[in-house]
Amino acid sequence: MRYSIATVCLSGTLRQKIEAIAQAGFHGIEIFENDLITHQGSVAEIRRMIEDHGLEVVTYQPFRDFEGLPEPYRRKAFDRAERKFDLMEQLGTDLLMACSSVSPHALGGIQRAADDFHELGERAKQRNMRVAFEALAWGKHVYDYRDSWEIVRRAHHERVGLCLDTFHIFSRNVDLQAILNIPGDKIFLVQVADAPRLSMDHLSWSRHHRCFPGQGELPIDRFVKNLHATGYNGPFSLEIFNDQFRSGSPENTARDGYRSLVYANNSSESVLAQQGELLPSIQSPSEIQFIEFALNETEKQALTPLLSALGFSKAGIHRKKAVEVWRQGAINLVMNLEPDSFGQRYHEQHGVSVCAFGLSCQNIPALTQRATQLGYDLTQGSLSTDTHGIPAVLGPIGSLLYLVDETLQPSHWEREFVPQPHEPMAYLQAIDHVALSMSYEEMLHSILLYRSLFGMLPSASVNVADPSGLIKSQVMQTADKKVAFTLNSSAASQTVSNYIASRYAGGGVNHIAMRTHDLVSVAQRLAELGIETMPVTANYYDDIAARFDLTPEFLAALQHYHILYDEDEQGVFLQLFTKLFAGRFCFELVQRNGYQGFGVPNAQMRMTMQALEVAQLC
């Protein structure tokens, strides 16, 4: 199939959109009517720009309010069509996308609409044009692709075909099986769009909340599987109305759009294997093997007492660089102070922060090939400063995701670091999850990356209350739940999430959650060492005493040590947060006794307490 994108998906002028679309690797472009109308130049100039960038105009769209009109509106609709055909000749495209009518004058009736399209097909044939009919989810009479297909079938004209759009299909919860009955050569255009599942009118949902395949919650894979079964091999295009996309970087959005099509198209492996487009299959990461901090010496001296209190000790010093690893259990925290390294360049831009994550992976060659096919930037490091040779993917917030070969022996720790005598502690065992604060646009980029490259699964998104607004939160985790990132963004400028993002001058880590078998004992140790933890209100403990069956002694311990508590059907969850370090990130200590979630009922308490802490810092 030919990958294409509609100009409405991107911000910028038409010229900027065309350049971004070509650079991203697309072969086709849909010219949206408003982009052509507002262009300060001739249609001939637009055609030259498109052809100079090696693109093909797969369709001109939309042609509105055509079918089912009484006179004199019917005659005027055909006159409009002729004008569109004139314009299409100048653009160099032969396909007009017509969407079902929302006109108050439109009359119902499948046969009436079919007769209109047959006549339009005759006119299109005289001009060597074609027409693709799309059922809008909010169409007055036609809002189901099965009805639009019946109209196309009855029109019985070689120049009239179908346009299938996933948003219009899924927003109406229309069954997909009927797609299998449509001949592939009668489908002239396919537009794919994902979206979160929302309860709202179809038009508002479509105009503001669409996103790229893999970024939402719609079963795009089921649609694509049925589409491939029809034998369709035409334009596979994106038509995304999204407020963030139309205000962000057209280059970044176009690149994400292209990789989303590659990812979506891989739902039918047998077809793609024949076409040589199949992405290599991979296994999801098995753990977050290390977290790398970019910091200076002063910041390191301030951070290491906290790490020591948490039970970490210096386990290794790099043989050539100013880099240390602090370890406890399976947790490795890397301190990067090496001049002219990626970490220090990151530090210059963002200040003390997490600049990289190491993900334990298998079959690194397949994973890097998959990343390349998806269009993700890979780095192997500088030969003059880096010796580990670990490939890395540049993440959406600018940090690196190292692809660590978990089978390689000796390990990079043995090759790179001189071991340091230390007394292993057993307070904390492993990284549970990492929470990131970012813009909503970066959140969509992140969801697509974790899903398409690492096979991670999204949770349903939730809204968390902050004293200054709502924060949208979504978890991306592996199927075995061993690797998890919680992504947080907010449209409200004064929330904790946006405060932290502003401190980083971009997205960054909010907290690093680490598992323990006995959180009360760890909390007692921190208290004895004078480490401040996030305070919790007395009202909170009154509430959980009413909600859960807790002994007075246990409840008193929770309150004394500021430990949060929750239960689900699988078990119990305990949480404890340190104060924010440099107003940026904190450590979360968790104890899971079968519990599967991430303490969403406690999130408002955390946000409220962190907001008070932030207010004191400002």
Summarize it.
This protein is α/β, with parallel strands linked by helices and 618 residues long. 36% of the residues lie in helices and 24% in strands.
Can you give a write-up of this model?
The protein has 618 residues and is of the alpha/beta class. It folds into 3 domains: 2-274, Alpha-Beta Barrel (TIM Barrel); 287-407, 2,3-Dihydroxybiphenyl 1,2-Dioxygenase, domain 1 (Roll), CATH 3.10.180.10; 430-617, 2,3-Dihydroxybiphenyl 1,2-Dioxygenase, domain 1 (Roll). It is 36% helix and 24% strand. The chain is built from 21 helices and 26 strands. The strands form 3 sheets. It has a 9-stranded mixed beta sheet. Strands 18, 19, 20, 21, 22, 23, 24, 25 and 26 form a 9-stranded mixed beta sheet that branches. It has an 8-stranded parallel β-barrel with strand order 1-2-3-4-5-6-7-8, surrounded by 4 helices. A hairpin with an 8-residue loop joins strand 25 (572-577) and strand 26 (586-593). Helix 1 (14-24) crosses helix 10 and helix 5 packs across helix 6 (145-155). It is elongated and about 85 Å long. The two termini are 54 Å apart. The model has no long low-confidence stretch (mean pLDDT 92).
Give the helix/strand layout.
Elements: E1 2-6, H1 14-24, E2 28-32, H2 33-37, H3 43-52, E3 56-63, H4 73-91, E4 95-99, H5 110-126, E5 130-134, H6 145-155, E6 160-165, H7 166-171, E7 187-192, H8 202-209, H9 220-229, E8 235-238, H10 250-265, H11 269-275, E9 287-294, H12 297-309, E10 313-318, E11 323-328, E12 331-336, H13 342-350, E13 353-361, H14 364-373, E14 378-379, E15 392-394, E16 400-405, H15 412-416, E17 417-419, E18 430-437, H16 440-454, E19 457-458, E20 462-466, E21 469-477, E22 484-489, H17 496-504, E23 508-515, H18 519-528, H19 538-547, H20 552-560, E24 564-567, E25 572-577, E26 586-593, H21 603-617
Parallel strand pairs: 1-2, 1-8, 2-3, 3-4, 4-5, 5-6, 6-7, 7-8, 9-12, 13-16, 18-22, 23-26
Antiparallel strand pairs: 9-13, 10-11, 10-17, 11-12, 14-15, 15-16, 18-23, 19-21, 20-21, 21-22, 24-25, 25-26
Helix pairs in contact: 1-10, 5-6
